[in-house]
């Protein structure tokens, strides 16, 4: 499959490298043309890997991933162009973390809105699916880093979009039985609001190789 | 131990009944004197169970539990009286859920504040500890309702207060190894912000007998 990734940070590169290893063709998109991070990644990653702009990555992908920071995601997809994303699935893996000078971390948006919902409102012709934002990027593409069964969660308004994302996640190694559908894109806010808890757990454990396993009576 | 419970709802009564069963003496406190719910509970629960006001419950307890809704918790502890809570541990199990007419659930406070932090600021001479707000009240007092190992989380500024709460939770049946200390009372916001996710999971499973098990690599 042809996949576009919006964002050249650690998350975008980690996802891109895994997708290329799985045989997908990937364009890693940066804000400005000729970005060094995207070019370096593509050069390291072989013939299936291409650098591009946000718009080039969006136009390239049959499925597109938002791997920018959640606080700039809306601006990034505007640069990517709604026309380049129309009819496609947009997998949003971002969290809207705001880091204060004192080290405090908050979310914006939060509580009555989310990045996932904002992207869906901005892109009514795109199937926005929230997923993967609840784990570190190394765990995203290698769930075996965490022992035992543990879960991912998807949220989105479009069943086909969610099915496409679930299929991709199973390629990453996530058993379909461990991917829980939490409902419409408005459930994205509940997934984004896990981040403060996740950050506390990371501090507690001293690493990011952990995930949630939901224990249930029946 | 003498325990005061502020709040006569399902959570307060469930905790009170368990505490009495464990041999503790409990005053279940209501906003107004002569409250029927508190009187009925005490009559059903035997000689270790007493009804009272918020202030009487606070004055009675060596340890006090806030089991009111998080949106009214601050007003409830003001009625309980800072002088009745001074030097004591206050276990805050509440969540600040706001239910809109459309069925949407949000939190207030959220993100940069929490009920736990508000209570601690209002009661500087009290050891406020956040715990138990991440599970249904039936699971709070009977962790075996959920199979396997699963976790609780405590947050508070005072180590002695947290130790007292952990001791009480082990009496409820929670293994000490499954109670994670997430830090100061400011970690309460991360625990309260789990509620939207918890509500989505409850909708997904169709019941509340579930909990988080954190899987970790090391």
Automatic annotation (TrEMBL), chains A, B:
The keyword Oxidoreductase applies. It comes from the Bacteria. Residues 2-96 form the Pyrroline-5-carboxylate reductase catalytic N-terminal domain. SUPFAM superfamilies: NAD(P)-binding Rossmann-fold domains. Keywords: Oxidoreductase. This is NADPH-dependent F420 reductase. It comes from Kitasatospora phosalacinea.
């Amino acid at each position: 499959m042809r996949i576009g990734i919006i964002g050249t940070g650690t998350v975008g590169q980690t996802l891109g490298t895994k997708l290329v290893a799985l045989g997908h063709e990937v364009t890693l998109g940066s804000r400005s043309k000729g970005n060094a991070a995207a070019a370096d990644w593509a050069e390291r990653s072989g013939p299936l890997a291409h650098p591009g702009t946000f718009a080039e990555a969006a136009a390239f992908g049959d499925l597109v991933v938002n791997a920018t920071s959640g606080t700039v995601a809306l601006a990034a997809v505007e640069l990517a162009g709604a026309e380049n994303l129309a009819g496609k699935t947009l997998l949003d893996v971002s969290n809207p973390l705001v880091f204060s000078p004192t080290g405090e971390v908050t979310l914006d948006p939060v509580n009555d809105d989310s990045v996932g919902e904002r992207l869906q409102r901005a892109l009514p012709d795109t199937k926005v699916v929230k997923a993967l934002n609840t784990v570190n990027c190394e765990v995203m593409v290698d769930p075996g880093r965490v022992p035992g069964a543990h879960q991912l969660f998807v949220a989105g308004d479009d069943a086909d979009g969610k099915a496409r994302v679930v299929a991709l996640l199973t390629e990453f190694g996530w058993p379909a039985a461990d991917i829980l559908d939490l409902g419409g894109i408005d459930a994205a806010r509940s997934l984004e609001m896990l981040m403060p808890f996740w950050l506390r757990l990371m501090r507690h454990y001293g690493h990011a190789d952990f995930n949630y396993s939901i224990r249930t009576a029946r």
